[in-house]
Amino acid sequence: MTEHEERVARRGRPSASSRETLEEAALELFLEQGYEQTSASDIARRAGVARSSFFNYFTAKADVLWVGLDPLLAEVPPRLEAAATELVAGGAPKRGDGLATLRKVLLEIADTVQPETVRWAGSLRSVAGTSADLAATGTKRALAQQSALTDFLARAEPGLGRLQRTVCAGSIISATIAATVFWIEEGPTRGSFSSVVDEASAPIFLAYSAE
């Protein structure tokens, strides 16, 4: 984009760039012309900012797909680390204590899901549901969350072996992903996000808590 084009583009938007402005511009374009057909330059132009401003907030176009969920995902590792520290401070955890704590933390985070998260998730699933970018970035985030859960279980559920911890964490992440997709697709009748996540993951917690 030339300097003249940038000045013209800015006229339709506030001069002060913001992450929120870029997010809204991206969603508009994804819905209008499709995810694959939209570039970072298109998003910046719609937002009325220079292309470089886009990369001040996002490393790639695919990161915009996760703006509604990334803040929630970012909460998980520090919350689990703090919970594990508190749990082991009282002595060696008993079988099931760590899993009960993990379940509590995850449901507390799920309870914070806001309506705008649903709007983003539902809209982006409809326009980028089959995108390779969505699959790749989703896998990256899922593996990061699985690692955080596995590390927590290593500290808080010492009775579980390494393989058990890995499979347990992976199963919980898979159940949460399935619950998220189900919840989005259910629309107004969905109920609370945390209740759906709990229903999907409860059998896993129960199975691994058993002696």
Number of strands: 0
Q: Return Rg in Å.
A: 20 Å
Structural class: mainly alpha
Please write the CATH class name of the largest domain: Mainly Alpha
Report the order of strands and helices: HHHHHHHHHH
Could you name the CATH topology of the largest domain?
A: Tetracycline Repressor, domain 2
Write a compact overview of the structure shown.
By secondary structure, the chain is an all-alpha fold. The chain has helices at residues 3-10, 19-33, 40-47, 51-57, 70-89, 97-110, 115-128, 132-156, 162-186, 193-209. It is built from 10 helices and no strands.
Give a verbal description of the structure.
The chain is mostly helical and 211 residues long. It folds into two domains: 3-58, Arc Repressor Mutant, subunit A (Orthogonal Bundle), CATH 1.10.10.60; 65-209, Tetracycline Repressor, domain 2. It is built from ten helices and no strands. Helix 2 (19-33) packs across helix 3, helix 3 packs across helix 4 (51-57) and helix 9 runs antiparallel to helix 10. The longest helix has 25 residues, at 132-156.
